[in-house]
Every structure is written in structure tokens, then in C-alpha cells.
Amino acid sequence: MNAPHDPTSVGAVTAQMAHFDAPIRLRSGASLPAYDIAYETYGELNAQKSNAVLVCHALNASHHVAGYYANDQSNVGWWDNLVGPGKPLDTRRFFVVGTNYLGSCFGSTGPASTNPATGKPWGADFPVVTVEDWVEAQARLAERLGIERFAAVIGGSLGAMQAMQWTLSYPDRVRHSIVVASAPKLTPQNIAFNEVARQAIMTDPDFHGGHYYEKGVVPVRGLRIARMIGHITYLSGEAMAEKFGRLLRRGALGFDFGTDFEVESYLRYQGDKFSSYFDANTYLRITKALDYFDPAADFGGDLSAAMARAKAAFLVVSFKSDWRFTPARSREMVKALLDNRKIVSYLEIDAPGGHDAFLLEDPRYHNGLRAYFASIDL
Amino acid sequence: MTDQEQALLAARPDYAAIGQWVDRGARVLDLGCGDGSLLRYLWQVRQAPGYGVEIDDSRVLACVANDVNVLQVDLESGLSLFADGSFDTVVLSLTLQAMRHQEAILREMLRVGREVIVSFPNFGHWSARVQVMLGRMPVSETLPYEWYDTPNLHHCTITDFEDLCRKLGVRIRERLVLHQGKPVTLMPNLLGSLAVYRCTAS
Predict the structure, then answer these.
(1) Is A364 in the B-facing interface, judged by CB distances under 8 Å?
(2) Known catalytic residue: A321?
(3) Contact B164, B110 (CB under 8 A)
(4) Which of B98, B39, B103 minimizes the C-alpha distance to B74?
(5) Are A346 and A334 in contact (CB under 8 A)?
(6) pLDDT at residue A4, rounded to an integer
(7) Rounded mean pLDDT of chain A?
(8) What is the pLDDT of residues B125-184, one digit of tens each?
(9) Residue closest to A367 by CA, chosen among B54, B64, B52, B33
């Protein structure tokens, strides 16, 4: 049975895979001899190849940005509210590319893939990957797709770090960088949250030093806790209060350690759901990629010096209720761009959703992105 | 001049003066930039690139749609995004009277810009004086709000503003006083409804 036709959906989509035989050298010094990158595209690349937009995903998402799969119609892309015909990132005008980063568990080569040297899953031996490495792989995919220069690269959170890094790794290959709910580097508090998540995973008895695939087990407990911690930081206190209040699950206090409050039930549910599909080794690596991102590090901590080589125009967006990456962190980025006299606009949206607001449909936010995309010349 | 520019100058007579005082290619910062129409105008007539600062959501959106660089930050918290001397001209057009901290913003403008341009509705205009004398807060073309719905917090007259400039050591380079779009030279604090100043640090 077909879903009711939604004219603003890109409709049924198919994931594609690009295989690369040339080795990729990673920032760590390790290299992958060969690798696959999973991706999806929506819309048409125009004759001048000037309308391509790269969408970079954050922690737990994938190349499935918009539309749905014909054999799984409930599996809707993670940024479907933004991308489609007539949506802010309008696929009638732009050719949109979603890619899955290296190290993922959703298609691109990652820790669960087979290590050609051993014939077994990489597991713990899969290298630590960085934002720079992801951009490198995306650049190779762009070459494969015949895209010399992106009209824009956009992302939220960790995805936005890729949008920033694009302007530094390939200044001539990106015209606009759209950086949503992000930061030019993590604070010690951010890193601390990531470390708790990693410890939860690595101390799970089923983790087996990262070689759990061959044991036929999954460190579910660690992943659950990691996800629960993450979820607390994605929501604002206000959003949590509004969503759950102190509502009781069973109508009265239980005087036991079952789920008394709705918020506990929510976190357990999110943890269970996540641990059923996400790979622990991938989780460890993406949190490291977040921790390591710091383009100013090579410039003595001077972000303005780091951003000097960027040539793109920037749109930076933050959300007032986001305490994981606060507006102040976005303003650091804006200041560094202003110091370099770059073209930049900055929106500070008074949305209540916390860090997750970048995935929601606040009209001020989406209208801003719509107007910005409309102003991009093709 | 295009029809659009003519309509803009009719609606905002201070823009023509600001346009004359901004050098070709100058770097401009427009504080309280509204929908970005001044920055667009300065780009068209002076090829002056710039940034606008605006706090209101719908105006910020209008700037993005107008292809004007806009930064959504609160002016009251200062201009900490901007380095010392990073602009040729900093403009505060019809915004001074709506701010809480006049002294602070003028100091900040002189820190980040070589020149500052300030325009404000003149509360000393005779029609305002008459209305106050008759016992009511003034409502006019340049002061279009009722007392209970006005965004304006600190009204001043031409004399008041010049006193403040003296106190802060701000040097007034040029002054243009207007009424209904026409220059006023005789008794400006009485006959002018709109004042535009070009200032530097002394």
C-alpha cells in the first residue's frame, strides 16, 4: 500500500554506495586501504553543476536525510522537515547529497565492517576518525559525483563541525557554509559528558575491549546509559519540564526502583531503542571526533587565525535554550569570521527545544534557512 | 535613482544624508538595521559592504531575504563581536532613543568605528512642545507611537544630544536637521523633527 502522496516529500529514495580503492590517510596517521561511503541524493544536479548542497549528519543519524524507503515507509529521513520540494532546502532547486561518515554503523565502512587484513570485523582495531577525515572522504565522493564546488554545506551540531571544516579543508570547493547549533570546539564540560558515555560502554562486561561482534553479544547496558546521558544534554530543562513535568507513571509513588516518573520512562525507552540499532564502537568514535574537533589548535588557539583561509559565506544559527552548545559558542565562531571580514549572518533563535531544536520546525528557524537558501545564486 | 530608491528616501529622509557621509567602499556597521534597507542602499549607491545588527526576529528574516549580512544580537550587551576600529562608519539610525544605555552604545560605536552617524527624532520640535504644553505626550510623523505602545525609552532634543556629545568627548563633524525631508537651518531645535549627526572621537 502506498503512503498518501505528500507533495513536499522527496518520496521513496534509495541508498547508494560508493566504493573507493585508493587508501585514505587519516589524521591519526592510520589509513584505510579501501572503504565504502553510503549516500543518498535528492533533486537533480544542474548542467553547470552549481546547485549541489551537502548535508552532514550528527551523532546518530545517517545518509538517509529525506524521504522514505519503499520497503519501509515509516523510515523517514532525519531532516525530512527541511529537505524536499517546496521545503526550506528545496529539492526543485538544489541537488542535495546526504552522506554517512566513515566509522558509522549505517552503511559506510566502520568498526562492524570486515577488516581485509584479518577477514574478521574491525571491532576495536578500526581507527579513530575525525571531522577532518570525514570531510576528506566527502570530498572524494563529491569528485565521484562530478561536483567541483558545493553551493552549500549544511549541518547541525557535529554535522555543523563538518560544514565548518569544509571551508578550511577545501576553501575553493564550498560557497556557503551553514553552521547550526554548533561550537568551534568542545568545552571541558562537553568532553566530560562524552567521557561518561564512553565509560558506560567500555565498562560493560559485554564490551570485550571492542571485540564483541565475534562473541555474539552487544554491550547493550553501556549503550543505553550513554544514550540516556546524551538525551539529557539534548533537551533543555524547560523542554523537559514541559514534556514530562513530574508526571507519575503509575499514578502514585511506588516506593521501589521501578519507573516512578515519566521522564525515567522516556529515558529508558530512548536508551532501549538506541541500543537496539546503534553500534557501541561507532559511538566511541563519534564522541572522540567531537572531542578532537578544534580548528584553532594549530593556530595557538586563535580561532580568527584559523578561519582566515575560509572563502565561503557563512550562516551561523544557535538556539537560546541549547545548553550543550550555547549561543555564546556560536558567537565565538561569528566573531572569528568578523575578524576576518568574512560574509556572515547570525541567527539566535529563541526556541525552547534545547540542542535538539536544530531538528525541529520552529518557523523562525526554518524561515531563516528558507530565505538564506533562496538567496544563494546558482 | 530607481523608483525603489526614491520611495525609500521619501520614507527615510536621513538615508540620503547617511549616504553622502559614507565613503565609497567604506566598511559599514548598521546598528538596529531593521529590514536591511539602509545597508542595501549603501551598497547600491556607495558599494559600501556592511553588516547589520538587529534583535527582532521578523526584521532579521527580512535582512536575510534582502541578502544583507545580519547579526541577531542584543545591542544593549555591547558590541563585543566587533574588534576596535574594524569599521569605517558605524550607523545608529532612529535607534538611539529606543535604547536603555545611550552613553554605553556611543562609546562602543566610537571604539569599533572611525566615524559614527546617529539619527534620532527631535523631541524639541515645536509640535512636540505644543502637545506637551497642552498636556499630552506628542504623537507625530517622526514620533508615531502612543505613550503606552512606544518602543522609545529616552527621548532627547538636539540640544540634549549635543550636551551628551560634549560630556563624552564626542566631536560633531557635521549635522543635518530635517523636517518633512527638507533641511532646516533656522532654529533647528524648534523647527526640525529629525536630526542626523556625523561624529568622531575628539
Answers:
(1) yes
(2) no
(3) no
(4) B98
(5) yes
(6) 57
(7) 96
(8) 999 999 999 999 999 988 899 999 999 999 999 999 999 999 999 999 999 999 998 999
(9) B64
Tell me if A338 and B64 make a contact (CB, 8 A cut-off): no
Whole-number pLDDT of residue A1: 42
What CA–CA distance (Å, rounded) separates B67 from A327? 23
The reply to whether residue A343 touches residue B71, judged by beta carbons under 8 angstroms, is no
> How far off is chain B from A346, nearest CA to CA, in Å?
5
- Rounded distance between C-alpha atoms, residue B111 and residue B127, angstroms: 36
Burial class (CB in 10 A: 0-12, 13-18, 19+), A328: exposed
Partners of residue B89 on adjacent β-strands: B28, B115
Give mean pLDDT, residues A137-151. 98
Query: Do A118 and A111 meet the contact criterion of CB atoms below 8 Å apart?
Result: no
C-alpha–C-alpha distance, residues B68 and B47, integer Å: 13
Q: Which of A341, A348, A375 sits opposite B72 (nearest CB)?
A: A348
Selecting among A80, A204, A322, A356, the annotated active-site residue is A322
Q: Are A38 and A100 in contact (CB under 8 A)?
A: yes
Distance CA A160, CA A156 (A): 5
**For residues A59 and A226, what is the distance between their CA atoms, to the nearest angstrom?**
12
- Of these residues, A9, A104, A157, A318, which one is catalytic? A157
* A231 belongs to the catalytic site: no
What's the pLDDT tens digit per position in A347-372?
999 999 999 999 999 999 999 999 99
Chain position carrying cell 561511503: A37
**Which of B71, B74, B80, B87 would best serve as a mutation to test chain A binding (most A beta carbons within 10 A)?**
B71
Q: Residue A118 CA to chain centroid, in angstroms?
A: 30
ipTM for the predicted complex comes to 0.93
Q: How far apart are CA A98 and CA A54, in angstroms?
A: 6
Q: Are A339 and A304 within 8 A, CB to CB?
A: yes
pTM of the predicted model as reported, rounded to 2 decimal places: 0.95
Alpha carbon of A89: minimum distance to chain B alpha carbons (Å): 14
Tell me which of A315, A345, A362 to substitute to probe the interface with B (most B C-beta atoms closer than 10 Å). Answer: A345
Question: In this structure, what C-alpha cell is assigned to residue A301?
Answer: 588557539
- Strand, coil or helix: A117: coil
The yes-or-no answer on residue A272 being catalytic is: no
Cell 564483541 appears where?
Answer: A212
Amino acid identity, residue A27?
Answer: R
Which residues of B lie closer than 8 Å to A, measured between beta carbons? 27, 51, 57, 60-61, 63-65, 67, 69-73, 80-83, 86
Q: Which helix (H) or strand (E) holds A71?
A: none
Q: What is the CA radius of gyration of chain B?
A: 16
DSSP one-letter code for A237 = H
Q: Which distant-in-sequence residues (6+ apart) come within 8 Å of A279 by Cβ?
A: A105, A110, A111, A112
DSSP, residue by residue, B87-130: EEEEEEES-GGG-S-HHHHHHHHHHHEEEEEEEEEBTTSHHHHH
Angle value at C-alpha B170, between B168 and B173, nearest 5 degrees: 160
